[in-house]
Amino acid sequence: MRASYTPPGVLLALLPLTSAFYLPGITPTNYSPGDLVPLHVNHVTPSFSARSPNTKSVFSFDYYHHSFGFCPPEAGPEYVSESLGSILFGDRIQTSPFQLRMLENEGCRAVCDEVQMEGRDAKFVNRRIMLDYNLNWLVDGLPAGQRFETPDGLEVYEPGFALGRVVDGRPQVHNHYDIMVDYHQ
Q1: Dihedrals φ, ψ of 165, to 5°?
Q2: What does the pLDDT look like over 111-132, one tens digit per residue?
Q3: For residues 164 and 171, what is the distance between their CA atoms, to the nearest angstrom?
């Protein structure tokens, strides 16, 4: 019996050269002007804030929890298939009524009629604002975020954005959004 030997350099020379990369769960999408860019919603989570560097709660809520009163899509929210990582992190990604179109600027547009809240729902939402809860959106599968300044003055971007703010000790819900999307051509 005769053994054969192939030098390692020959094996390396046979490997194809590539300039691509792959991140599990993320695939690039090309959009043409006017194409619909998906904006999905995720659960509402506790967060840090400028008022306090500590997280004040550990419970997250479905985005469409009845007490929040968020507007669902016309056909109702649907769960979006998730990657293994999203499942392990407890994400609950759903469709939204927001419609973003590639390279189209749009002014203020209501996504639903005015929502009247019951007293107990308003207290629930106000409490979540006081506990610094964040909304979590995904635009084309990437998390939306807000600029945040640390106590030592460092500017960072944090996934998600505040459900509301506290002014003079009174909570105010954020119900108007300026959505700005950066993109690569």
Answers
A1: -140, 165
A2: 888 888 999 999 999 999 999 8
A3: 7
Residue 93 half-sphere exposure, CB side, CA atoms within 13 Å?
21
The 10s digit of each residue's pLDDT in 5-56 is 656 555 455 555 555 555 555 667 889 999 999 999 999 998 866 556 666 7
pTM: 0.78
Q: Which of 71, 44, 43, 39 is nearest to 180 (CA)?
A: 39
Task: Please report the pLDDT score of residue 11 as a whole number.
Answer: 47
**Beta-strand (E) ranges in 77-182?**
100-101, 133-135, 137-139, 142-143, 145-149, 155-159, 161-162, 164-167, 170-173
Burial 156-183 (b: 16+ CB within 10 A, else e): eebbbbbbbeeeeeebebeeeeeeeeee
Tokens read off for 23? 């991140």
pLDDT at 148 over 80: no
Say how far apart CA 137 and CA 110 lie, in whole Å: 18
φ, ψ at 176 (rounded to 5°) = -130, 135
Q: Distance between CA atoms of 113 and 102, rounded to whole angstroms?
A: 25
